[in-house]
Amino acid sequence: MDRKMIDIFGERVEVLKQLPPQLVECSSDELKKGVTVGEQAWFMLEDEASVPLYSVLAKDRLSPTEWDLLQLLLKSSKGRQQDEDSPRWRRQLIEALHEPPEAFASAIRIEDDIENMLVPWSWPVFLIAVRPKDGALQEIGAEVKKTFESLTQTVEQAPFVVQDAALIMGIFPLAQKERDGNEVFMGEETAFALVDGLLSESFIEARAVWSEPIRSFPELLRTAKRMLYVALTAERFVPDQRVLSMRGLGIYELLYSIKPQLRQAYAEHVLPLSALATLGTELEQTVTLFIQCDLNISETARRLYLHRNSLLYRIERIRDLTGYDIRRFDDAITVWSALLLNRF
């Protein structure tokens, strides 16, 4: 890491003269590229100082997106030499994943001849991307790959597996019957089989994103980038959802795309701290369930085990403290989105 990184992260970087015990055995080259320990990223500064200096970036001082991107950069730096011997299609796919995740990757920085990329499969294919719920992909990568390989019992050809710091991705050539239209496409079922297998065989909780059939390499790159974005969005807003499609997460993706400083400003503007302190968990519980019940007061009261009048009292109390009447669709969506952004 050079001084430019300190300029980027500013006061959030801590500069120290001593390494933690678990990094003492690391070489200078490893430390210059960056090493993650727990929720901290350590780097040796590349300068002429007689005493080595180390910069530290803690996860709790970065936004979730910044931390994810930092991990991608670390993986890229460490794997660059190894990747030089990888097939070009694999390098190109990993490079696409190293770029900032995008909801709709309409343009990708690729070479002009990418359309005719030589690949070891026949088109079309479909993708399944896996990301563990705890994000510790490097530690369990071997188990995930093993589960991918076990799916050869349910698919015609073994998948081509690519591992990155953010995702493990399987590229599945379509079975001949699926290509001919004589068999129903099994992308979603295969994704469920994958996450179920990881949980039952390896006790790994993971999230999978599956795609519809893909017919070109540029489309594959765009799909992979969107898969990463959908997976990161799900981690933040719908952590219990195990299998996702490329259809995505709707408004959750829009909320995830908001810049961190704007998220906080919007949440505090809609929901003052005094209102949050007074209403406590009652606010989120009521608003979330009210939205899920399509603003139906009777159904919401039933699911909250409240009398209808008790729910109406809650709603009036929310209006008095926030200024928003969640019986109105616009107000309900405003408060609900602020509650979601307040989780960051």
From TrEMBL:
Pfam families: HTH_30. It comes from the Bacteria. Gene3D superfamilies: PucR C-terminal helix-turn-helix domain. Residues 285-340 form the PucR C-terminal helix-turn-helix domain. This is PucR C-terminal helix-turn-helix domain-containing protein.
